[in-house]
Amino acid sequence: MALKLYNSLSREIEEFKPLHEGKVGLYTCGPTVYNYPHIGNYRAYIFGDILKRYLRYSGYNVKHIMNITDIDDKTIRDSIAQGKTLKEFTEFYEKEFYKDRDALNIIPADKYPRATDYVKEMLELTEKLLENEYAYMTEDGSVYFSIEKDKEYGKLSHFTLADLKENAKGRMKKDEYDKESAQDFALWKALDESDGDVYWNPSEVLGKDTKIAKGRPGWHIECSAMSIKELGESFDIHTGGVDNMFPHHENEIAQSECTTGKSFVKYWMHNEHLMVDGAKMSKSLGNFYTLRDIVDRDISPVAFRYWLYTGHYRTKVNFTLDAVAGSTTALKRLYEGFLALGNENGEVVAEYREKFIKALDEDLNTPQAIAILWELIHDTTISNPDKRTTLLDFDKVFGFGLEDIQEDMIPEEVVSIVTEREQARLNKDWAKSDELRDKIKDLGYEVKDTDSGPKISKI
Asked: What is the pTM of this model?
């Protein structure tokens, strides 16, 4: 068996072969810290998390970098509107993002570089692009990338300039723009009065004279500078939402490869959109959800994670409160079933592990992997200790936190009696089974016998 992943660059499923044997460099486009991320953002971060988890499960040493965008049009605009410095404004939302990350059981990245800490590297890339004549400077000292100079521009999104409504003769100063606009994009923006006091002096940052004006970086150059600095000029995997494919990731490739002359990323991986009630999220439609919003509706962050696994990462999924409520119920059943297995460990069941790996090797087929998890739970031929250990093995990838809930939800004494009762039932000792059921009830819990094992709940 071999891991196969869909590469957005080739538009094909390819066998995964890292640049360096046994090691993987992974970069994930992280949050822009101007507000709370919405649940669509978290689909991208959870996708990146299960990819990392499975790579590690498969034996790879993964170095994972996720950037923090703390300088762009929105962070400047909103920090000024609130009368705060850029740093104090963005630090608040960065800390809130980490709280959400932990609530979702997302393994922390090895490093979270902030864009404002890599301005020197951004300026060095910009100077190199000027030197290589892929960029030009305007009269005000701003620097733009000339997309007509890059003959491979569009190879990720598979757009050509002729396909787009606007050609490359104009300039785009805004950080973000739609996929119908192909224009020269800003690498460095000269100081604008709307930026307030958010600017850098390139001569001071670089420690030498330069004609690049006082100002700030464009959005796209940030990820190139941070990923190259932390992972090298070429690395294995870059992830993000499909909405970032153009223009952001397309521009990352262009400016990086035209700087270094090397292939930038080997595998580009994108998750599809998360729809809400059949439509794109919009504040005007009232269907815009943050993680806090769904928690207020009694949906746990891990239940949201479970729900995402029921759809493949490359398919659009439609968020409804009813659908995720079903996943809340399924996760509760999983926790109860796991707790009922007792605390004794056994061996990982080879047959099920093989099925699990086969599913995830096929471009992270999480719906199939979830089905295998339930097949295991319902299999009455597997001993409780072996079933428990196999579920814990699977959870290294799923991230449901099974090990952490074993004593939090139901007292150990109750779990022990339930395990003893299961043995009595196997021995067809119905009198003892009934006696132990009453004992469980006296402790404030009840047990129901189902096809998937005993279910424990508080009375």
From this structure: 0.86
